[in-house]
Amino acid sequence: MGYRVAVVGATGNVGREMLNILEEVKFPVEKIHAIASRKSIGQLVSFGDQNIACEDVEQFDFSKVDVVLMSVSGSFSKEWSPKIGAAGPIVIDNSSAWRMDPDVPLIVPEVNPDDVEWANRKNIIANPNCSTAQLVVALKPLHDRAKIKRVVVATYQSVSGAGKEGMDELWDQTKGVFVLGAPEPKKFPKQIAFNVIPFIGAFRDDGYTDEEAKMWDETHKMIDPAIKLTVTCVRVPVMVGHSEAVNIEFESPLDEDEAREILREAPGLIVIDKREPTGYITPKEAQGEFPVFVSRIRNDPTVENGLSMWVVADNLRKGAALNAVQIAELLHQRGLIRQKAIA
């Protein structure tokens, strides 16, 4: 017997990817519901070989489903996730709304799977920021071995992290450059085609952005609040796939060879690290893939016990939809999904 599953925000990039991955991993689905806003009622989305018509979130009875995957704005989730959780199903939310709530577990299954055990406090589980998700998968096994003191990260984040509007803007500007000139930016503050933008989110008083703050706050919650972490988030003209240049300082010695072996054995990771012109991963190769990829692992001689590495993942998958489905799989494996009797 499978579960009755609803995907809220089913017409967006991540919502569609959630539907694709549920089918791809053969999650036990008895009945699937695609839920969207009123303007999308009746719009068809794919689930395997089925076409499903979107239903209205305002009219849908959430008490008849077991699991709800949410890919919506933070404000929408703030309003709806508690209502849905109170109706019975477990909510796995991809927005930033609940990540730092002390009564809501923030989970990457390879990093802190045991935290699902207290999801019943609010019946909500939070998915981390896309850049954090891939970072913590790479950091956790190294932290377990040598204890991380400090991390310096520069991200190279694709436009799909800003949704379909971001992808459309890169596409339109790229075409425009070769014809009549790039159209004025709308989604991003400056031209993204043939450019990079060292600003994602909104500035805080300390000069960092909220996107950068999410990465250290979420890493502290999932791994260790003692880790010192500083971040510069950069938007780059790549459609799908986030990359990160990561520099780590450990409390005890850990050389590149041992780090490479630890990462090779760690769940959810693939190491591609040959010292030749094509011996590393790029976001193009990571697109459509499940794992987090690590390359360019090397000692940093400028600090005691230092390493540098390159971390890449498909942000629509491990950074969002895949992680949400993996959380659902974890709940299933531990018998934590309360199924309703079918009327």
UniProtKB/TrEMBL annotation:
Molecular function via GO: aspartate-semialdehyde dehydrogenase activity; NAD binding; NADP binding; protein dimerization activity
Top enzyme category: oxidoreductase
Protein family (similarity comment): Belongs to the aspartate-semialdehyde dehydrogenase family.
InterPro entries: Asp_semialdehyde_DH, Asp_semialdehyde_DH_beta, NAD(P)-bd_dom_sf, Semialdehyde_DH_NAD-bd, Semialdhyde_DH_dimer_dom
Active site, per annotation: 130, 242
Protein name: Aspartate-semialdehyde dehydrogenase
Pfam family membership, one: Semialdhyde_dhC
Function noted in UniProt: Catalyzes the NADPH-dependent formation of L-aspartate-semialdehyde (L-ASA) by the reductive dephosphorylation of L-aspartyl-4-phosphate.
Catalytic activity: L-aspartate 4-semialdehyde + phosphate + NADP(+) = 4-phospho-L-aspartate + NADPH + H(+)
Protein EC: 1.2.1.11
UniProt-listed GO biological process terms: 'de novo' L-methionine biosynthetic process; diaminopimelate biosynthetic process; isoleucine biosynthetic process; lysine biosynthetic process via diaminopimelate; threonine biosynthetic process
Keyword presence, Amino-acid biosynthesis: yes
Keywords on record: Amino-acid biosynthesis, Diaminopimelate biosynthesis, Lysine biosynthesis, Methionine biosynthesis, NADP, Oxidoreductase, Threonine biosynthesis
Pathway listed: Amino-acid biosynthesis; L-lysine biosynthesis via DAP pathway; (S)-tetrahydrodipicolinate from L-aspartate: step 2/4; Amino-acid biosynthesis; L-methionine biosynthesis via de novo pathway; L-homoserine from L-aspartate: step 2/3; Amino-acid biosynthesis; L-threonine biosynthesis; L-threonine from L-aspartate: step 2/5
Biological source species: Phenylobacterium zucineum (strain HLK1)
Binding locations of NADP(+): 11-14, 39-40, 160-161, 315
